[in-house]
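<instruction>
Derive structure tokens from the sequence

<record> Sequence and structure tokens follow
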Amino acid sequence: MSKNSKKSSQKATKTIIRYPKQYHFSIGMIVIGVMCVYMVYHLFTYLTSNNVTIYEVSQGSISSNLEYNALAIRQEQIVYADNTGDILYLSENFGKVGAKSQVYALDTSGEILSSIEEANENAEVTLDESDYEKLQNVVSTYMVDYDNQRYGKTYAFKTELESQAEQLYAVSAIENMGDSLTAAMNSGTFNIYSSPTPGLIVYSIDGFEDLTTDSFTSESFDTSKYTSTNLKAQKSVEAGAPVYKLITSDHWNLICEIDNDLYEALKEETYLQIKFLEDDVQTWTTIAFAEKAGKRYIILSLDDSMDRYADSRFVHIKFINNNISGLKIPNSSIVDKDFYKIPKAYMVQGNNNDDPGFILQSDADNIYINPTIYYEDEDFYYVDEGVQRGDKILKPNSNEYYVVGADMGTLQGVYNVNKGYAVFKQIEILYQNNDYSIIKTGTSYGISMYDHIVLQGDEVEENTIINN
């Protein structure tokens, strides 16, 4: 074998033949890949979309402990002076008197009262236990009604205390005057006047004495313009001037202005429990309602506690135990939505059911439609889907038609998500505070207990898919 042949044989044995590389796919890897893509997609959509929170509707109540400065209306009678002269009050303020009870005296000459003043300056008058009790009652009444923002009360208390003390001394002095008093009374210069009728004595007037539950107005509640005159501060009077006031009945009324929500919540009630905030005393009242100039008022009728507030035209009270119950939902769920209103006269029934339907005018054959009814009142159905603005609805057995969009209405409601997507449901609010509303149960187009609604109602729209 030649040398060249040997080299060719060696070269041939070193030649390497490469085969195409084989790729083997694993089903497990494919499944894992798909799952990763799915998870990444849903994580992305969750992070970039609004998180909708679901609220389960439940039975609940709202305790509406509402405070009011109530207007007090009583049966009040002002008594006027028969003559001109210096006045001496004989009956204590807020004391009950009978017919013919001595209330005040008038000294036309001034001699008797001057003698009484001189006697008081020089004599020591001993007060008994009942006298001290009267003075203590004046102080106690002031302490209960004390308000460091109302200085007028302080001056009224000072005047009342001084007047009460002077009255006790004067009555004691009169009892000891004897012949001089008798002579003055016989001459007509000193006269003692009795109450014309039984009642409760009040030595102040404010111009509201003739106010009734029928004649009050919204201006009657303006406390900034309210003034009261203390009659006991006067030393003398003119004939025909007011000298005291009689409250002739234990029956009285308190009136408060209320909002429409509270009216709706209480309009079926007969009784209401209240608390007087001055002394924390509670009582039950019967209630009635009035409406004046677009405002609503509640009228409370009472047959007790009148004497404790006889000089208060405005009484600070609180409504208590007023638990308004129903379906309780958060206010954040409530939305307003606009709807087309279609007159009920255009309704027809078809498709073998009793659901309201309409005949929609078409260029070809007229079409029977059965849109979702969201609410109805006496005259209209409220619809949204299934019709468009400008559609013509034919009236049965007539050539008349109604153009959709001619009448619009707004409903309050929530989005129900029982089926996995948002469906508007109309609600009727009975009462509402800052956080929650109590809504009426058993409404035809509303919600029921245990329904699921969107907590943030303004973050979804009709038919929004809820992934929660």
